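Per your request, structure below.
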């Protein structure tokens, strides 16, 4: 329990808040090298966060699980190890390049379906509201003396 809380705190501070501020500084100073470094970090960290969601459910019972997560985040962040840069260049970038077109098509399809779903729900909502208002008005007129 304590390991879980400490892990959450370390990941929040060192895995999210510090990199967010460092990214802000890179953008503010227009330092391209730092900007690229932090973009690679955020991409790897996003994948870590997605993976962590599932591993927390299935592997949290494993001894030193939370300590390993802390070490991993510090490794990703460390300028000495350049962990996020290594993972990005060796695994993430090649995988994304291979599937880029497929991912783009999926995102476009999801956006299109999402737009149509919202439009349909909005239309149904307006129709329902109109029906309710009309029924209420008719009932009020019928009840009037």
């Amino acid at each position: 329990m304590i390991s879980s809380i400490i892990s959450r705190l370390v990941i929040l501070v060192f895995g999210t808040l510090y990199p967010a501020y460092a990214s802000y500084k890179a953008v503010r100073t227009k330092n391209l090298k730092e900007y690229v470094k932090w973009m690679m970090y955020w991409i790897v960290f996003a994948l870590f966060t997605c993976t962590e969601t599932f591993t927390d459910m299935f592997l949290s019972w494993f001894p030193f699980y939370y300590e390993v997560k802390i070490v991993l985040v510090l490794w990703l962040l460390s300028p000495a190890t350049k962990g996020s840069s290594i993972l990005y260049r060796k695994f993430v970038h090649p995988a994304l390049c291979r599937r880029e077109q497929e991912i783009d098509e999926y995102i476009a399809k999801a956006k299109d379906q999402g737009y149509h779903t919202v439009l349909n729900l909005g239309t149904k909502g307006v129709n329902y509201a109109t029906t309710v208002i009309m029924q209420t008005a008719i009932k009020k007129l019928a009840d009037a003396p």
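The mean pLDDT is 88.

Regards,
D.
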